[in-house]
């Protein structure tokens, strides 16, 4: 079953070199009960650790069922430890956070991917501890803890039990109980290899191997080896390598992660604080940026879509730049020509503007007078929120009708409904037929402080103009805006016979789509900048998690050694600590999302800022927090996974 040939093992303790094993060779058969004895420093524990696959010899050969172990990978060695061997330690090595039942079931986590509590209950009953199943190690006596350790070693039905000084810390009564249990297990066909320094204990074995100075001093058979009719087999278990098994293991590791958080509340809170602040800041900053974007979009939508604005430009006379519009003037005929001669144009609205004093009753208010055509409502997204817009017939008749913005309504009418009322502007009485939709501030101007009238009414009855100040042009297709822009300029130059030297500045055609794009891009960049600044705190939080996890690895070194001894592979330990890091960051992330949402509400409520928390920003913050946990938890987890089992168990 087990065979070692000329095995050597040397340790370096500072400047000193300890030759723990020197050319040891022996064979252990199935079903034997072997006691390895010798004084301290004789190499007996080292021999057991090599036999139990917890340590590797420096030279020599070790075969398990005829297979050389030196050529086995860590994954295969871990599988052998969890399915073939069981360990009983002098120091018990029970995990303090787990109950007796959970400690016993722990090896099944690495064999099945989940705790086998039914098997644990049966084994606790076998060792006489069924009534102590829910007690933690600090609530058990030394003998009870050792019996829990024995039950744990049996949970995966091993073929071999390794017992390292199993009675060293026990009273005589408990000592006899433990040895009796080992004898019964051996009678059932389980091979027992026990290290002890007491002759009374060693003499109860079937074979005694005495060690001194790293060599086998004697090998004595005390009782005959009973011939086994069949080798004990490990019962069939669901493989943890399956998809479901791996998911179960991850879930169990996550549960342990939550328990670890609960057991170290202050440390866990401090490690989560950086993530909480970072995620909260990301959510709040993205909400602020998205709210600003929505506000900009609302303002831009009030400008209309696919919009060009034609204005007369500055012309030159004798090298001197004259006042804008002093030579070139836009006329109503120009507006009509644009609509008729450029097919890409859907509609055009001429516009004249000026200031006027509006009066109603005993109130008056200085406001902007805007004369437009009936198509203005559709081009500029200004369909009235109440009442109606004037018709083209009313424009041709120069009707004395008006629409007022909400600022004018507030200043002239207060709470009174303005529809049907008459206001006076420059001594001209105008009947209010509609209230314009609220558009808010645009740059320095209040877009709602306006009175809109038919363009002919404005030109000939209010402002005394025979020309228009500008023309709003709606292009049918956004793809044709640039080409239409050039056509408009060319048509105006041709109609006004502008000399070549003056053509460059004769007319201005502004593309409001470019303004929209510029504002949207600017807001996007600012949002990303704010989120990037907030993400820095996430990185700081990630560094905090890494530091905490490194401390945790150091504190739990012996636990890592135990987990490897009972069958955990490097991947299992890596997964355990990685999951714990992710649990810390995800819990911190969820709390950060909640805090960011609260901060967003506060900004909106008390500062009056436009904010908007979107599912995308929440998902981004959450995934980023999990990513931080993975990235910054990977190094501590890797360090934990690479620990040598026996060195970890010996760690003080």
Structure report:
The chain is an alpha+beta fold and 652 residues long. 47% of the residues lie in helices and 21% in strands. It has 20 helices and 24 strands. A six-stranded mixed beta sheet has the order 6-7-8-3-9-10, with helices on both faces. The chain has a six-stranded mixed β-barrel with strand order 14-15-22-17-19-18. It is rod-shaped, with a radius of gyration of 43 Å. The model is unreliable at 229-239 and 315-326 (pLDDT under 50).
Spatial strand arrangement across the major sheet: 6-7-8-3-9-10
| Separate helix tally | 20
The chain-level structural class is alpha+beta
Shape annotation: rod-shaped
The biggest beta sheet reads: 6 strands, mixed
Please estimate the helix content.
40-55%
Beta content comes to 15-25%
Mean pLDDT metric: 83
Tell me the total number of β-strands. Answer: 24
Contiguous runs where pLDDT drops below 50 for at least 5 residues: 229-239, 315-326
Our measurement of the CA-to-CA distance between the termini, rounded to an integer number of angstroms, reads 34 Å
Query: From the alpha-carbon coordinates, what is the Rg to the nearest angstrom?
Result: 43 Å
Sum this structure up briefly:
It contains 20 helices and 24 strands.
Pick out its properties.
20 helices; 652 residues; alpha+beta
Spell out the blueprint of helices and strands.
Layout: E1 2-13, E2 16-28, E3 33-37, H1 44-51, E4 59-64, E5 67-68, H2 74-83, E6 85-88, H3 100-112, H4 117-126, H5 142-154, E7 160-164, H6 172-187, E8 191-195, H7 199-202, E9 207-212, E10 215-221, H8 243-263, H9 265-301, E11 307-312, E12 316-317, E13 320-321, H10 332-341, E14 345-360, E15 363-372, H11 376-379, E16 386-387, H12 392-396, E17 401-404, H13 406-413, E18 422-425, E19 428-435, E20 441-442, E21 445-446, E22 450-454, H14 455-462, E23 470-475, H15 481-496, E24 507-511, H16 512-555, H17 557-565, H18 570-607, H19 615-641, H20 645-649
Parallel strand pairs: 3-8, 3-9, 6-7, 7-8, 15-22, 17-19
Antiparallel strand pairs: 1-2, 1-4, 4-5, 9-10, 11-23, 11-24, 12-13, 14-15, 14-18, 14-23, 16-19, 17-22, 18-19, 20-21
Helix pairs in contact: 3-4, 3-5, 4-5, 5-6, 8-18, 9-16, 9-18, 9-19, 16-18, 16-19, 18-19
